[in-house]
Write a structure and sequence with these properties.
The chain has 433 residues and is of the alpha/beta class. The protein is built from 12 helices and 18 strands. Strands 1, 11, 12, 13, 14, 15, 16, 17 and 18 form a 9-stranded mixed β-sheet that branches. The chain has an 8-stranded parallel barrel with strand order 2-3-4-5-6-8-9-10, surrounded by 4 helices.
Length: 433
């Protein structure tokens, strides 16, 4: 079963206007049907191989989404103390029997160490000094170790997840001394973890996973306490309409082979885990904005003239295009949808020249061929579920946009309301310290 479902789903003008009239624009629309389709796809490749799936909740941590994951039997990969508390709030159990919630970190920040100790959450450490920190905080449970396998990368250079220039994990050649250090403090390392990143192609992921399995197989005999390995996340999602959706069905065979190979190398049962984030949620959320105006600049010696569609969403809502030139499909809904296509730059309201949604990987303007919208039309920025709302900010004192849940029967629920200036001011104080 490939990811052929609901690619770049379109919504009617009536539906989007109905929501806009109730909650204003911009808003996020989360589609239950699309999310459940992705969940069932991942289960179809993992379950036949007995692979346990964790959801990398950093991609989209809304309680409503976490509840869907829990109902589907997913476990959780959290990366901060507050993400652990969010998972507990959504009904995931604490403790390590089994370790449903795992905290993966390179640094214990804020309340992370306290949460691990108090809730008995399974820590996955990415730096050797964290062993001592755990022991000194009174932690005495089992731990996982995230290793840097020496290869792997993310979907863009800004997301370097493996190899010598990656900050993540413990270099694979130093693994033995890290495990010896844990033993000195009375902590058992029961799981090895690596995340090699979602390269842009499934073929690359398959090659990297085969390589990772071989690396694990060579290590398991040295570490008799290890009873689980994680193959990480990294199932790629196709953002561009011109590229075919990813067919993830080859993963089923890989997972079956991996479990057999690892158990043979270890001579004991090994739990194999994966932890996708982006693949689950990327296509399920659409950022819906209002077109306020369409304006032009004229060609001069400094460059060509451009047509700008001004919208009320900006990088406070979806930062990925401004941050590293990521591509999101865009569609026009309303009167202008039938207009001839022309090159359009889609720009937002923020006092920042980089507040543009149509950029390329070098972060240069990349006008998009779109129907020329009319002021008042709605503009949909698709596939924003992963690292969209969760990376939003309050720059310019803008409140975060509301999230609306679209159920399969067409009913709508407000998942989170628009932030107000009162929300932003509530945390300001004038206390003596």
């Amino acid at each position: 079963m490939g990811s052929m479902s609901h690619h770049k789903k379109q919504y009617s003008h009536e539906l989007l206007e109905k929501i806009a009239q109730k909650v204003g624009t911009p808003f996020w629309l989360l589609d239950a049907d699309v999310l459940r389709g992705r969940i069932s796809e991942v289960k179809s490749v993992a379950e036949p191989a007995g692979v346990q799936v964790r959801y990398a909740m950093k991609a989209l941590s809304a309680t409503r989404v976490l509840e869907e994951m829990r109902a589907a039997g997913m476990w959780i990969d959290a990366v901060s103390g507050n993400e652990v508390l969010r998972a507990l709030h959504a009904g995931f159990p604490p403790g390590q029997n089994p370790p449903v919630i795992m905290l993966t970190a390179d640094v214990f920040r804020n309340n992370a160490l306290d949460v691990v100790v108090e809730k008995g959450v399974f820590p996955n450490i990415g730096s050797p000094g964290m062993i001592r920190a755990l022991a000194e905080a009174g932690y005495s449970g089992d731990i996982a170790v995230r290793m840097n396998p020496g290869f792997g990368h993310g979907h863009v250079n800004a997301c370097d997840t493996g190899g010598p220039s990656s900050k993540h994990g413990i270099w694979y050649e130093r693994l033995g001394e890290t495990i010896a250090e844990a033993r000195r403090y009375g902590l058992r390392v029961v799981m090895l973890h690596a995340h090699i990143g979602s390269g842009p192609k499934i073929t690359e992921l398959l090659q990297n996973l085969h390589r990772l399995v071989r690396e694990y197989a060579s290590l398991l005999s040295q570490f008799p306490d290890v009873n689980a390995v994680s193959l990480g996340g990294g199932i790629p999602h196709t953002y561009k309409e011109t590229e075919p959706p990813v067919d993830i069905s080859p993963l089923r065979e890989l997972f079956l082979e991996a479990k057999a190979e690892l158990e043979k190398a270890a001579g004991r049962p090994i739990r194999v885990e994966i932890e996708p984030g982006r693949y689950f949620v990327a296509p399920c959320a659409t950022l819906v904005a209002r077109v306020t105006d369409v304006k032009k600049t004229e060609t001069n010696p400094k460059g060509p003239g451009r047509t700008f569609a001004m919208v009320d969403a900006g990088f406070v809502d979806l930062v990925r295009p401004a941050m590293y030139g990521s591509y999101h499909p865009i569609s026009v809904v309303g009167k202008g949808a039938a207009n001839p296509k022309q090159e359009i730059v889609v720009a937002g309201p923020l006092c920042e020249s980089g507040d543009v949604f149509t950029r390329d990987a070098s972060e240069l303007l990349a006008p998009r061929l779109l129907p020329r919208p009319e002021p008042g039309d709605l503009l949909c920025i698709h596939d924003g579920g992963a690292y969209g709302y969760v990376m939003s900010s309050n720059y310019n004192s803008v409140g975060r946009a509301p999230q609306v849940w679209l159920e399969e029967d067409g009913s709508l629920r407000l998942m989170s309301r628009r932030e107000t200036v009162e929300d932003l001011l509530r945390i300001e104080t004038d206390e003596a310290l």
